Structure formats: structure tokens, C-alpha cells
Amino acid sequence: MDKNELKQEIAKLEESKEILKEKTRLKNEQKKEMSSFYAIAYRLLAKKVGFLFPRLISLQPKLKKSGMPVVYEAYVCGLVLLSMIGGIIGLVVGTVISVLFNMQPPEFGILFPVILGAGLSQGLFAFMSIYPNFNIKSRTTKISVELPYYIGYMATLSASGLGLEGVFKAIAKEESKEEIVKDAKYIGRNLEVLGMDIITAVKDLIERTPPGPYNEMLEGLISTTESGGNLQEYFTATAKVQLEEKKMWLKKMIGSLGVVAEMYTILMIVFPLLAIIMLSIMAIMTPSLAGFDLITLMQLLTFGFVPFFGLIMLVMIDTMVPKR
């Protein structure tokens, strides 16, 4: 065996070691990500609640698109276990309340714990059934914020001569928790560990991506790559569209914030001042209004109305303004 062949064999061994390390790392990450609660639930209930798997199958694509690191069967087992725990807690709490307050008639005192336990169990079951939808919405929002900037970054990478696989690998090296970086790492895992080609890896990612511009961009990537198109031109054109949509969205948000500012001025400044002035003038003529003491009404206005609507305004602004 000459030196060149020896070097090739050593290189292959090093590559095999790197792949083995990557597999070990991914397994450890999956163990950390996979909640012990779902793992325990699966071990306890997998055989007993197997009849629910085909009935709740609509949860499976939602779990994929939500990005939750849990297998469908384990999630169903966790859903059932949490409902059972909630039912038991409701039963115990209902019994304690029934005994402490000596509920009458006695029949209601007996039924109350059962009703509370069943209600809490059903409520948790319903909440866990729709919980992936909240994660999908949250993930969609995060991606919509990140997408215009990352497409521009992809265009820069492709202009430097990187292919589609190289673009995703470069993004995967970023030390951040953005959704697009996570997706790039997911593609990198499919390429290096599972041995997929780049087209298959992107198609697999599309199945795990919420519908929207990001999903459409990935589908366009596949079409461009398969047809031999220019990735740089595709990324550049898509980035321009996304930035224009971002500008339109920002203008719309600024307009909405202007409306909220006007509402704040009216509800929090103008109305309280006018109300205090009117009530003060009325107090000269009569001490009460519709059976309520005017001083009490002014106190309610000052310490109740103003803080309450101030809190509502804060919540409205917080929901409208992006967190990132």
C-alpha cells in the first residue's frame, strides 16, 4: 500500500469518526430535547392507549410543523397521562372543597368532586389537543421576522460560489436559536447522518414547515435546483419580494400604532379629565348620581378605570409590536 492509498484510508477513517461523533451528539440532543414526561408516559401507556393513535392522527402533521421534539405516539400518551393527572387532582381538590364548605344538598357535595375532576381532565385534553397550533403560530411569526434577512444572507452565500447544500451548511454553523438556523441544522443532519441528498432533505423540511412564504421559498428552491436555474438570482429576487412585504407590513403596523395612540389619548387623558371636571361641578349641586356618591365615582375612575384601560393598552401594544 503506497502513501496515497494510506492517506485516503486515514481520511476515510477520520470521516467515519466524525459521522459517528455526529450521530452520538444528535442522539444526546434528542434525549435532552425529548421531555422525560413524554418518555415516561409512552412507557406507561403506549400499549393501553394504542387505539387512540389512529383516532388522533390529525395531530401528527401539526406536531411536525410545530417543531416540537416529540414523537406523535409519545405526545398522545402524554396527553392522556396529563388528563388523568388533572382528573385526579380535580377529584381531590373537589373533595376537599366539598368537605370544608359542607356543600348542600349532600348529593351535590358528592357530585361536585366528580364534576370538577371530569371538567379539569377534559379541559387539559382539549388544551393539549390544540397546543401544537399555538407553537405553529409562534414558529410562523418567528420565521416571518427572520426570513427577509436570511434570504439576503443566502443570496450572498450563493454569490460566493456555494451550492444549495453549502448554503444550508454555512447557515447551520451560526450560533443562534433562530428557526431558520434550526432548520439548516436539521437539513445538515439529514445530509450527513441519514445520507439524504439535498433535494430529499429540503422536501423533508417542507413537510415540517408551516404554510407561508418560507414554505413557498423552499419549494421554489427545489424547482430552481432541479431545473438547473441560478440560485443567486432566485435568492435575490425572493429577498426583494420579502423586503417589500416587510416594508408594507411595517407601514401597516405603524398605522395601527397611530390608532392605538389616539385611543390612548382619548381614554387615558381626555376622558378622565373631562369626567373629573364634570363630576366636580355636579358635586356642587348634588352629592350623588344615580344612587352613587360622586366622590366614590371619582375614586373608581381614578383607581379603577384608568389602571384597567392602561393595562389593556399595554397588552394591545405588546401584541402588535414584534418582540425581535
What does this structure look like?
The protein has helices spanning 3-33, 36-45, 59-66, 72-100, 106-159, 164-172, 179-192, 198-207, 213-226, 231-285, 294-320; strands at 288-289, 292-293. The chain is mostly helical. It has three domains: 34-135; 143-244; 246-320. A two-stranded antiparallel ribbon has the order 1-2. A hairpin with a 2-residue loop joins β1 and β2 (292-293). α3 packs across α5 and α8 runs antiparallel to α9 (213-226). The two termini are 58 Å apart.
Structural class: mainly alpha
Number of domains: 3
Report the sheet with the most strands, covering strand number, pairing sense and barrel closure: 2 strands, antiparallel
Query: Per DSSP, what share of the residues sits in E-state strands of 2 or more residues?
Result: under 5%
Low-confidence stretches: 25-34
* Percent of residues in helices: over 70%
Helix-strand pattern: HHHHHHHHHHEEH
Give a quick summary of the entry.
This protein is mostly helical and 324 residues long. Helices cover 81% and strands 1% of the residues.
Pick out its properties:
two-stranded antiparallel sheet; mainly alpha; flat; 324 residues
Layout of secondary structure:
Elements: H1 3-33, H2 36-45, H3 59-66, H4 72-100, H5 106-159, H6 164-172, H7 179-192, H8 198-207, H9 213-226, H10 231-285, E1 288-289, E2 292-293, H11 294-320
Antiparallel strand pairs: 1-2
